[in-house]
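To: structure desk
From: M.T.
Subject: fold request, one chain
Message: Could you run this one when you get a chance? Sequence is below, nothing fancy, just the single chain.
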Amino acid sequence: MLKIALGALALTAATPTALAGGGTVHDLTVPSLASYLSPKPSRASTSTAPVSRENASVPPTAQGAAAEERSDRALVPLPSIFDFTGGEGWGIALGVGLEYEAAYDGSDEYELEVDPAGAIQWRTGNNLFFFEGTELGWRGLFDERWLIQVGTRYESGLDPSDSEEGHLDGIAKRDSHLVGFVEARYALDDAWRNWIGGRVLAGESDFGALGVLAAGHRFGDQTDGQGTEIYAFTTLGDSAFINKDFGVTAQDAAASGLAETKLDSGYRSFGMQAIYRRQLTDNLQLITQAGFELYSSDIGDSPIARDDYEAELALAAVWRF
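Reply: Done. Structure tokens follow.
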């Protein structure tokens, strides 16, 4: 299922962090902001800095608290976009994720998996470099409302062993790929309560290309990335991308008994995703995610797709160092 990761952190194989597609590809990580963060001032600086005329009426302790609050603001205040840096420098979070999802795209077999979760980030101003789940890249905020992200990610291919009931026996294992992605999100308001975005994922000729369009809404007033966010998405793929997951070649058909199937480019799926992020302590963060994806009628007719939909539920706990 696409993990938007829309981002969702690609935490457990891909917990909130970007929109992509296939396997665990929903990661539309599109952050952009400008004056949201400033480095946390040291205690020495907050206690000895002179008080300007504009702040003469504000007690020094209040000024320090205001600066501290500003430094807690994430690159963008979306639960689906992770920023563990505190506004500047390094941010490292490690933990574990529990995920209940389909064994492969279109499968009617579901499994419960425990996976490592985490991210390594480095931020300077409105630029953040990251290694999150299976993605390595950069994201930046421009003009307060544009979030841009580019990078590379690892995509594993469909494997006959993915089906414990033998539904994929006889088909050839699909290759895994290192692919590139570009993503952008635009806030429809200054508070990033509503946004629209898109992601393009592309690789070698046998991987193809996927496009994702999404629109989301953020609840609450927090600016540190906590809270609840929901978004809807639709995916479009070229024939190579769609057939690598749902096509059946003549060789596959001869070996597996499945009907030969070749799908055209075009509409792939529609879905919705919800993510909730909560800071339990100064260092411990809880991330929950749920979503569903409905495939096109052509994909639903593929012998590989046992169902024309799939659902997912994930829970992750990470410790921020």
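Reply (cont.): The radius of gyration is 21 Å. Let me know if you need anything else for the meeting.
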